[in-house]
């Protein structure tokens, strides 16, 4: 089974200039643990995770309306391709203790023109992919 075989929707992603408040609302509203952060060409720049959202709590800093995802996102991010075997993704996630891995594919000549996110699905013990395409 490959990453492409377990992709699901809805499509959820953010740009680097998205406010942290908006990104947190997307995380909680969709019940997901991370969002791919993509540029205008839909290339993966980083990942905004639950841990990134909580970073201000540890420092005692409130999440102000001007705080942007680019200032707290996790980067660099390992990505996998659409044809990557799910077992290889699972091993990488276990070894690196990751909850999410962006999946990229090539389209219109550009690597990463379309991203998806592999995540662990609680209750089923299976991995799924949150699609994030656009552009």
Task: Give structural notes.
This protein has 135 residues and is an alpha/beta fold. The chain has a single domain (3-132), classed as CBS-domain, CATH 3.10.580. 23% of the residues lie in helices and 31% in strands. The protein has three helices and seven strands, in the order E-H-E-E-H-E-H-E-E-E. It has helices spanning 20-30, 50-59, 86-95; strands spanning 7-8, 34-38, 44-49, 80-81, 100-107, 110-121, 126-132. A five-stranded mixed β-sheet has the order 1-7-6-5-4. The chain has a two-stranded antiparallel ribbon with strand order 2-3. It starts with 6 loop residues before the first strand and ends with a strand.
Helix content: 10-25%
Number of folding domains? 1
Count helical runs.
3
Total DSSP E strands: 7
CATH superfamily: CBS-domain
Overall residue-averaged pLDDT value: 77
């Amino acid at each position: 089974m490959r990453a492409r075989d377990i992709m699901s929707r809805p499509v959820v992603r953010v740009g680097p200039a998205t406010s942290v408040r908006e990104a947190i609302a997307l995380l909680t509203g969709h019940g997901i643990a991370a969002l791919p952060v993509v540029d205008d060409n839909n290339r993966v720049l980083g990942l905004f995770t639950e841990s990134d959202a909580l970073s201000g709590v540890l420092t005692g800093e409130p999440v102000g309306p001007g705080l942007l995802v680019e200032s707290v996102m996790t980067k660099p991010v390992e990505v996998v391709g659409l044809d990557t075997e799910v077992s290889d993704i699972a091993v990488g996630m276990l070894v690196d203790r990751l909850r999410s891995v962006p999946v990229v594919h090539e389209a219109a000549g550009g690597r990463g023109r379309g991203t998806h996110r592999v995540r662990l699905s609680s209750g089923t013990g299976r991995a799924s992919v949150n699609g994030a395409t656009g552009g």
